[in-house]
Every structure is written in structure tokens, then in C-alpha cells.
Amino acid sequence: MEKIERDVVIVGAGATGLTAAHRLQQAGKSVLVLEARDRIGGRLWTDHIDGQLYEIGGQWVSPDQTALIDMLDELGLDTYSRYREGESVYVSPDGTAHRFTGDIFPAGATTEAELERLIGVLDGLVAEIDPAAPWEHPRASEFDHISFTLWLEQQSDDAEARDNIALFIADAMLTKPAHSFSLLQALLMAASAGSFSHLVDADFILDKRVVGGLQQVPLALGERVGAENVLLGRPVRRIEWSETAAPGTPGAVRVLTDELEVTAGHVIVAVPPNLYNRIEYAPNLPRLRQQLQQHQSLGLVIKVHATYPTPFWRAAGLSGTAFSPYQLVHEAYDNTNFGEEQGTLVGFVSDEKADAVFRLPAEERKRRILTSLAAYYGPEALSPTVYYESDWAAEEWTQGAYAASFDLGGLTRYGALQLEPVGPIRFGSSDLAAEGYQHVDGAIRVGARLAAEILAESPAAQ
């Protein structure tokens, strides 16, 4: 077995791990990044499917994501605005498609007023939440022990208003049923984006894309870190760490793959929390850390890509933006790539709806998904030239999307603990971010934070 020594080992070549590696290298530390996949990028993946370029993973950039925007500037990557001219579409409970402009769905004056009221209530609560420590809110325990569904039922008798408010958090973000997570988890999701109103505003939260795909961020970071320091196809099997040696001490940690033994002063495990237990730890992680990992889980979503000879919806005066909690595809957008003449739609099927269609044969699942797109855009949506489903739950080294969240009561019970190191071991990913939670912006912030913490512990900094 080959033996290597480094100052810091990083497990995972996604945006978090590579940001940390790059910042550590800039400070003069030697690093080695070990990636289980055969590619760089983690949950960012831009690839060609039947000749069509698709962003299979994350893709959007919003104005509040300043860490990502700064990184794009640092790497020299260009962005372009998502197409948004024309009217949006909302499908009501009876299946009728309604065209509209603005953020509030055309659901009748009473329901629209209730939507506005609930958004105001949530914005007020979100303004009280520190996304870095939501468990410190005076009512954190109360908010963490009531499901988002039950809280909405206590707030309003208007079922359509409740369904649409839930869509912004449950379907569109956490990709879990609203009864399965707490009000506090919902408030954290909104606080990480600046407000609940930001989640409602598609033109804000889904503002821009990167020319050529967002995976270029980790790819460019990987180039800067150096191919010799980023090893692919090397799943980490075991981390041996010392309970007595000070973090940063040479040999404080030993990281093993099937082919390598790497000794270092620190290790960063930069993978989703649901994968922590794919690694054996010696000694075992503390009992509460093991318990913590059993109360976090990823959601489930199918990202649907459908390309057509032209963006036909534009000629019909539609922006491509479409929503409905009553459709299989709960949201969809114009996702046409920069400079292309053909048109691409992207849609999403999440949580229990995804459960149901995954039980179907692939062709029947495709038929139902395209039928749902046609409810928004008309029969032309039924016949794409290229069709693809991003299924991150089937990815061995991800197993869900978009990010991990806690079950009821988990955020107050374990939230602060997830940020603490275990000896020379630090854990981090976009799943643990404050601002930019579950986004690339959050991944970059966490990577930079972990690097800074390690540098602060280094002998030169003391």
C-alpha cells in the first residue's frame, strides 16, 4: 500500500472540499483530496445526454449568493440570466391552467390575500432566525417540535393557500413532505436565502446560470489544486484518529483507501451527512455524533430535462416559469442553454410524488411527467427530442437531493453539534451551511470556514 503524508486530507472533491483545499494551499499547507467518484464536482455535474448539454445537478446563481459570485469572479467564469419574459402558468386544484405575472398565483382574491398574509408572517419569523444558530431562537424548541404542515393548519383554513406556501419549502427546497420536518427547519431554509419572500420570487432565487455549467466551479478549483493532489476513484474506507494527539500534529489522523494510506494533521470529510457512515472510524465517533447522523437525511427529487427544436412556449407568450402543488411536476422553468436555438425545459418531481413514479416502468414514468409538463405548456411539451431524468438517489456517493435536513426535533437537539470537530476530524458540506444552505454558495462558505479553522489551529497561527 502506497503511503503519503500531507498537512490536510480532504474527503470529497465537490465545491466544499475543493474550496477548502484551495484556501489551505494558498496559505502554504499541503493537501490531498480523495474522491470516490470518477469525476470532480460532487452534486454539480454538467454532461452531454444524446448530444444535449444538461446541468444534471445544481445550476442557479442568485444575487444573495455572494460567496459563489465572488468565486465565479475569481475563476473568471461568466453568467447569463435565466429567460423570464412573458407570463407564468399556475394550475389550480381543478386542473385549469392560469396565466399570470408576478409572484402570487391567480387563486382568487381571498386565497391570494391569504398567501400574502402567510408570506408576511413567515418573513417576520425568518427575520428573527440566525441561520448560523437557529437553535438559539427563544422559541426554537417549540418551532422544532411542530411539523410545517401542522403549523400551516394552525395558521390558516385556506387549503390552497397552505398547499402553495408548503410548495416553496417542501417540494421546491427540502424535497420532503411538509409533515416530516419542523417549522424551525423551514425557517432555517428561508433564512439561509435571506427571507421567505426570496423563495417565492423565482426571478430572485433562480436568477442566473454559468455559461457552460456550474460544474466549472469545482473543475476550475481542481485545476488550481493540481491533478496530483486530487485523486479520483478513491473511496475512503477508514479514518484512524488520535484522541490524545493535538489536531494538526503530524500523524494525528490516518486516512485509508483501498490503495493508499495518508497520514496528516487534519482531515475534512466534505461529503453529505448521509455518507459519513460509509467510512469506518477508529476509534468510533462519539455516541452523540453517531446519533446525530441518524436524524439527518436527504430528500428525494427527480430533475427532468426536456429539449425541443425551439423554445415553443416563448412564441406563446410564456416565460417558461410554471408552478402547481397539484401537478406531478410541481415547478418548471425555461432552461435553455446560453446561445442555443433549441429550447429546454427543466421540471421537478419531489418527495412522495417521486416515490410513486419511481415504482412505474421508465416509459410510463416519462409519459406521466411529460403529461404534467403539457398541463402547463400545451401538447407540444409531449414530444421532446431529448429527455433525461436526473436521479441523484441512485448515485452511490450521494443517495438523494438536494441536501440533508433534520427530522422533527433534530435541529435543536443536534444542530450545534454538527459544526464541532471530532479531534482532528472536521465535517462540512452545503448541508451544514448557514447562508446558502443546500446551495453551492453554502458549500463554498463551509469550505472556506473549515480551512480558516484549521489554519487558526496551526502552530504558525498560535
From TrEMBL:
Residues 16-455 form the Amine oxidase domain. It comes from the Bacteria. SUPFAM superfamilies: FAD-linked reductases, C-terminal domain, FAD/NAD(P)-binding domain. Its cofactor is FAD. Keywords: Oxidoreductase. It holds the Pfam family Amino_oxidase. Belongs to the flavin monoamine oxidase family. This is NAD(P)/FAD-dependent oxidoreductase.
